Amino acid sequence: MARAIVQWLWTLFMVMGLVGMGNCGNSNNNNNDIGVNWGNMASQPLPPTNVVGMLKDNGIQKVKLFDADSSTLNALAGTGIEVMVAIPNDMLSRMNKFKYAKDWVKKNVTKHLYNGGVNIRYVAVGNEPLLASYNDSFKQTTLPALENIVKALEEAGHGDIKASVPLNADVYESSSTVPSGGDFRGDVKDLMLDIVGFLKEKGAPFIVNIYPFLSLYQNPNFPEEFAFFDGNGKSINDNSHTYNNVFDANFDTLVWALKKNGYGDLKIVVGEIGWPTDGHIKANTKYAKKFYNGLLKKLASNKGTPMRSGQLEVFLFGLLDENTKSIDPGDFERHWGIFRYDGQPKFSMDLNGKDNSKTLVGAKGVQYMESKWCVFNKDAKNQDNISASVDYACSMSDCTSLGYGSSCNDLDVNGNISYAYNMYFQFNEQSVEACDFDGLATITSNNASQPGCLFPIEIVSAAFRLTIVPIQLLLLFSFTLVLLVLL
C-alpha cells in the first residue's frame, strides 16, 4: 500500500513538473522554408518550454535566435527544429581573437550537438552590424569575427554549419528608381565584396533583412499599396520585369548588386521580414494580417522574384512581442510579434498561404500572475504629481500602445494614467509597492481593459517559477514522509 501511494505521489510530482510544457500537436505548416525569429527582450519572457511547444504545434521547423542562450537551446534539443544561433554585435570585437571564437563555438555549438541534441544549421555573426546609423561602429570587427567563427567551426568538425552576417537592406542601394541600378553602398562596398567573396568560398548564404513597413513608415509619400502583395498599386518596369510590391523590388536590387560584382548565384536568405501591430498608425493587426496573407501566399507559390525564381527561405519577424526592446527606431519596435507577449495569436494566419481564416495555435500551459490591475485612484487628495508619476511609470515600463494611432490612443485622461500605472505594476511582478505613486494608484480585481485596448496581466516569469517549484517539492516531500510514517 505504501509503495502504491509513493508511486501515485511520484506521478503527481511528474505532472507538476510538466505543467506549462507544450505538446507536439498537429503540424499545420508544410512550407519548410518558413522560419521565425525568436527574441526574448521582455520583462517576463515566456519560458522556452512553452515557446518550443508552440513552435511544434504550429509546425514551425526553423527558428532564428539573437544569442545562444543555453535554456533556449536546451528546450530545442530533440525537436529537429533547425536553429540559427547568434553572436551579438557587442561580442564581435572579442571574436576577433581566434581563441575566443574557438571557445564560443565549443560552449555554444559543440556543447549542443550531442545525439538527440540541437539541430544547429547557421551561426549569425552579429545583427545588422553595418547599419548606416551605427556609424562604422562594427566596420572593422565584422569580417574578422566571421572568419574566426568559420575557422573555429571547421576545426571542431562542424563545417556543415554555415556562418553568415545578417545585414540590413541598407547595405545596398539603387542609383536609379529601379532594381537594376542596385549596388552596394559606397562606404561599405569594399568590405561587402570581401564578405560576399568569403561567403561564396564557404558555401554560406547572404542573409538580408527586408522591411516593407519601414518604407511606409520612413516616407510619408511612399505608395501604401506597394508595401503589400495584392498588386493594387502602381507597378514599375525594369528590363522587361514588372514589380508591383516593394519586397520584390528590394530583393532584386540585392540580386543586381551581387550580379554586378560577380556573385549572381549566391544564395540569399531573408533573415527578417514582418509587420508590427501597434505603436504607429500604420502598425495594426489589420495591416499585419493583410501583409502576412500576401507574403505567405507568395511564398507558397514558389515563384520567387522576377530576378530570382524559385523557393525563398524566409524567417518571419517576429514570433513574440518584446516589451523591453529599444524604441529608438519607433514605438512599433515592441510589437513585431505574430503572437502577443503571452504566446496568444493576434490574428488569423495560415503559414501554408492557403487559408486566410486559419488561426495559429497559441502557447499552452501559460501561467499568468493574479487577475489584478493597478489603476488611477480618482479619490486621491494630492494630484499635483500625476504627470511626473506617469512619466516615471512609462520610462520604467512600456507605454508604446498609448501613442498616436496606437491601440490605446483613444483612452481618456484617467485611462491613460491607469494604463501607465498598470504597466509599471505588471513589470514589477505586481508588487504592492509598485502600485502606490504617493496614493495616486490603487489595486483592483476589476479588469481595467477597454474595447480595443488591453491592460495586460504579466505571465509568471521563469525566475519566479524557480522560487515556487522548490516550495512545491518541499511540501510534496513532507507530505510523503507523513504518509509513510502513518502507514
UniProtKB/TrEMBL annotation:
It is found in: Cell membrane. SUPFAM superfamilies: (Trans)glycosidases. One of its GO terms (biological process) is defense response. InterPro entries: GH (IPR017853), Glyco_hydro_17 (IPR000490), Glyco_hydro_17_plant (IPR044965), X8 (IPR012946). Its EC number is 3.2.1.39. One of its GO terms (molecular function) is glucan endo-1,3-beta-D-glucosidase activity. Residues 1-24 form the signal peptide. It is an enzyme of class 3 (hydrolase). Residues 372-455 form the X8 domain. One of its GO terms (cellular component) is plasma membrane. Its main location: membrane. Gene3D superfamilies: 1.20.58.1040, Glycosidases (3.20.20.80). It is a lipid-anchor; GPI-anchor. Pfam families: Glyco_hydro_17, X8. It catalyses: Hydrolysis of (1->3)-beta-D-glucosidic linkages in (1->3)-beta-D-glucans. The keyword Protein biosynthesis does not apply. Belongs to the glycosyl hydrolase 17 family. This is glucan endo-1,3-beta-D-glucosidase. It comes from Spinacia oleracea (Spinach).
